Amino acid sequence: MAYSDHDIYRIFLNARPQIQRFLQQRIRCEDTAADLIQDIFLRLTLLKPPMASEIEVRAWLFKVASNLSLDHLRTQKRRGELLNQYLGDETEIDAAAAPERTAEAQAQLQQIQIALADLPDQCAEILYLSRIECLSHAEIAKQLKISNSWVEKQLAKALQHCRQAVDSQ
Question: How many structural domains is the chain composed of?
């Protein structure tokens, strides 16, 4: 028996409460389960279930729900790993709340400002054009009418000078 889109929607609507409970148990979030139910509903016209029986259509709906929940859980795990990798155990709020970190950052900023003021004019301009204006070495060389290698040497000199200023703190 061939099922029409109308029949598939009817089967989906009848199975919806069970699918939602299934998703809530897997994901442990009612709102996310509701979002995934909507995803399933929107995909019904794109994905074609097996047409043998209503039982197979229901099984297919649960398989789609299972796959979507696994995708969601994998995505959440990846996000968590990335957040942990880049933030570690501290959050922005934790870091912002620590007065010693604020004082340390202000001291570093002051050291960098002093180091930048100590740079020769052309060296500082090359650093500015490279890091702030995002110009390539070739564009900087053309604009300042100097060679590419001179741009590279001056940029390396500026960055090294700033690193030494921060490290000597």
Answer: 2
Q: Count CB neighbours of 119 within 10 A.
A: 18
Same domain (yes/no): 79, 110: no
pLDDT bracket for residue 78 (50, 70, 90): confident
CATH code of 80's domain = 1.10.1740
- Residues 89 and 76: their CA atoms lie apart, in Å, by 17
CATH number where 129 lies: 1.10.10.10
Reference 162, options 116, 128, 103, 106; nearest CA is 116
Q: Check residue 25 and give its pLDDT.
A: 92
Task: Find the length of the chain.
Answer: 169
Residues 141 and 151 sit within 8 Å (Cβ to Cβ): yes
Backbone φ and ψ for 122, nearest 5 degrees, come out as: -65, -40
